[in-house]
């Protein structure tokens, strides 16, 4: 079916909303004042030279910008903070490991990233060899059609995150409708993609023709399968909703002062930018203002009697 509105107008509108929304959020966060020095740490901070620090300490309690960079890499690609997450049960005075959440979060995010990389072949002609290698690396060629692991694992990760909000009392209490909407959109995108891959094999040539025309800003409406139209529409809705949802944590983590600030309180003073400007006086101005008092004190040889 040919539908210029859903094939051209909707993707371009969604992409424009995404770019403007992301830039607005980034500028807003960049201009936000940080009144306090609040890096969250649990390692040995940088201090006297003879106090040794391990590599773990340098990541968990960064002292300079290079250590902050290492910490941010661990946050973005390995979810360092989530890996250390525990749950405390007050009635039993017990900490319980909750790394299941970390495992499924890693499973989804890494799988989804590889799926996005694999989709770049629709926007590039010819397809670079590195993309082909990535595709071969994550494929199981023991069935026909070839099964891509990341498509299935991303759905597994999303399923856990969704069921966790439904059946965990604590998570259900703090969950908002927007939290469910983001997960439903992502699950819908993945499911329609898997259906096109394994159940209804749609022709890919028209899909690539449409994708190439969109990427070079020479859009041409193409006769593509209705299931792809549905998939493209869901992707466009997700992209447009991204800057206004909690999915924006993908970029927000870079602006989090608890993560991107070095723990160097002993070395540098953090000045609250919200404080009113301080207008001091120089030493010469001070001497001029209190000239008579200072001369009187000097005549007494700086000896003072305490007042009774």
Task: Write a structural description.
- The protein has a domain at about 5-85 and about 155-280: Up-down Bundle (Fumarate Reductase Cytochrome B subunit).
- It is about 60% helix and about 5% strand.
- The chain has 15 helices and 4 strands.
- It has helices spanning about 5-30, 55-60, 65-80, 80-85, 100-120, 130-135, 150-165, 170-175, 175-200, 205-215, 225-240, 250, 255-260, 285-290, 290-300, and strands at about 85-90, 95, 140, 145-150.
- The strands form 2 sheets. Strands 1-2 form a two-stranded antiparallel sheet. The chain has a two-stranded antiparallel sheet with strand order 3-4.
- Strand 3 (about 140) and strand 4 form a beta hairpin.
- Helix 1 packs parallel to helix 11 (about 225-240), helix 5 packs across helix 7 (about 150-165) and helix 9 packs antiparallel against helix 11.
- It starts with a helix and ends in a 9-residue tail after the last helix.
Lay out the secondary structure.
Elements: H1 4-30, H2 55-60, H3 65-78, H4 80-83, E1 86-89, E2 94-97, H5 99-119, H6 129-137, E3 139-140, E4 147-148, H7 149-167, H8 169-174, H9 177-198, H10 205-215, H11 226-241, H12 249-252, H13 257-260, H14 283-289, H15 291-299
Helix pairs in contact: 1-11, 5-7, 7-9, 9-11
Keywords:
single chain; 15 helices; Fumarate Reductase Cytochrome B subunit; 308 residues
């Amino acid at each position: 079916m040919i539908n210029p509105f859903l094939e051209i107008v909707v993707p371009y509108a969604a992409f424009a909303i995404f770019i403007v929304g992301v830039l607005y959020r980034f500028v807003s966060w960049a201009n936000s004042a940080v009144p306090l020095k609040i890096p969250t740490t649990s390692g040995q901070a940088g201090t006297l030279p003879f106090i040794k620090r391990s590599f773990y300490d340098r990541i968990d309690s960064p002292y300079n910008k290079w250590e902050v960079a290492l910490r941010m890499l661990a946050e973005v690609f390995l979810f360092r903070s989530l890996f250390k997450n525990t749950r405390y049960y007050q009635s039993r005075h017990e900490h319980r490991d909750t790394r299941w959440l970390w495992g499924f979060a890693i499973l989804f995010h890494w799988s989804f990233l590889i799926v996005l990389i694999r989709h770049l072949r629709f926007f590039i002609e010819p397809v670079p060899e590195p993309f082909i290698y990535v595709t071969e690396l994550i494929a199981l060629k023991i069935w026909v059609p070839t099964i891509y692991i990341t498509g299935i694992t991303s759905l597994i990760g999303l399923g856990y995150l969704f069921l966790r909000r439904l059946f965990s009392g604590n998570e259900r209490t703090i969950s908002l409708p927007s939290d469910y909407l983001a997960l439903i959109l992502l699950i819908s995108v993945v499911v329609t993609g898997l259906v096109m891959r394994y159940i209804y094999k749609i022709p890919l040539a028209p899909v690539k023709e449409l994708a190439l025309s969109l990427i070079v800003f020479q859009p041409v409406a193409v006769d593509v399968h209705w299931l792809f139209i549905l998939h493209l529409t869901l992707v466009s809705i997700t992209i447009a909703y991204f800057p206004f949802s909690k999915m924006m944590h993908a970029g927000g983590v870079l602006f989090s002062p608890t993560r991107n600030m070095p723990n160097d309180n002993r070395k540098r003073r953090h000045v609250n930018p919200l404080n009113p400007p301080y207008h001091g006086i120089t030493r010469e101005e001070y001497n001029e203002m209190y000239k008579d008092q200072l001369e009187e004190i000097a005549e007494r040889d700086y000896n003072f009697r305490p007042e009774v």
